[in-house]
Amino acid sequence: MSVAPHFYIRHIPVYGDLILAPMDGYSDQPFRSVCRELGSALSYTEFINALDVLVKRHKLLPRRLAYLPEERPVVYQIFDNDPQRLLQAALILQDHQPDVIDINMGCSVSNVSGRGAGAGLLREPQKVAQIIATLSQALAVNNTAAVQNTAAIPVTAKIRLGWDEQQRNYLEIARVIEENGGAALAVHARTRAQGFSGQADWEAIAEIKQAVSIPVIANGDVRTVADIERIKQITGCDAVMIGRAAVGNPWIFARLDRLQVPPELARSTMLRHLEKMLAFYGPELGLRRFRKHASLYLKPSGLDPEIRRRLLTAEQPEEFLRIFNTISL
């Protein structure tokens, strides 16, 4: 941990310049905690549907809201296309005492962006202004901590560059977020239409950084330690957010590329991650959810295909461990 914070989200100090991205199906408590141990400076949850919070109907909601004390600062990321639902969800979620509430304005999948949530909000700057202003004011007034004369919950946003190449309105959206009380901004440097294809436009993040005074977190195409330094140099960002490249290589938060990770460290981290998954989800679901991580952890190992198949189809933790203990990483 740094002696001094790298930056602040309003009053909250952030010790570090690398952050695990919120990824649906991946950024759960076990994986976040592994990444935090290795150097990720913030814990963003998987995105949370505001409607699920209001009706308490999603069976996985308690798991999505769960976090460990050592994960702080913790960011709850919520999504919806309706300002009032987002407000009511945020007011409920503040009782779980997150450090930050983040509005997802970057999800590109059609069942989210197509209904005007996620990246769909980028097409409506006035609605973005309403959401950020309403939540910022309400959380400052109604937050239990604020009543006790301590700090309220800052509101942030994660955006893309726009809906498509014809609607790259990222500077307008960034300014709207800042002007309406947003405390920080994470930017995935692609449009909604790009999804995860094409090349991230780091120069656009640099433009945003020049246009606003709140912290800017850069995201997109950071795959190696060298990429971290390049994106920081090009954008002048306050921190770097890493998503897909961290799955299978959480050591990137310790500034290690996958091939630099000693075999004994790879083994111990995998086992610790598996242990956390089993404790969090239970033996059956925990192992099943760990497989997708294990597949990427093992990608550079040159494992015999049949042994790999047996390992990744093991039904019980004991079977997985028995096979795992026979392989070299």
Commentary on this structure:
This protein is of the alpha/beta class. It has 2 domains: 7-259, TIM Barrel (Alpha-Beta Barrel); 262-324, no CATH class. 42% of the residues lie in helices and 13% in strands. The chain is built from 14 helices and 11 strands. β9, α9 (202-211) and β10 (216-219) form a beta-alpha-beta unit.
Quick structural overview:
With 329 residues, the chain is of the alpha/beta class. It has 2 domains: 7-259, Alpha-Beta Barrel (TIM Barrel), CATH 3.20.20; 262-324, no CATH class. It has helices spanning 29-38, 50-55, 61-65, 83-93, 110-113, 125-142, 144-147, 170-179, 202-211, 225-235, 263-281, 283-297, 305-312, 317-324, and strands at residues 7-9, 12-14, 18-20, 43-44, 48-49, 74-79, 100-105, 155-159, 185-188, 216-219, 239-242.
Topology, element by element:
Blueprint: E1 7-9, E2 12-14, E3 18-20, H1 29-38, E4 43-44, E5 48-49, H2 50-55, H3 61-65, E6 74-79, H4 83-93, E7 100-105, H5 110-113, H6 125-142, H7 144-147, E8 155-159, H8 170-179, E9 185-188, H9 202-211, E10 216-219, H10 225-235, E11 239-242, H11 263-281, H12 283-297, H13 305-312, H14 317-324
Parallel strand pairs: 3-11, 4-6, 5-6, 6-7, 7-8, 8-9, 9-10, 10-11
Antiparallel strand pairs: 1-2
Helix pairs in contact: 1-11, 4-6, 6-8, 8-9, 11-12, 13-14
Question: Could you list some keywords that capture this structure?
Answer:
single chain; globular; TIM Barrel; alpha/beta; 2 domains; 329 residues; 9-stranded parallel sheet; two-stranded antiparallel sheet
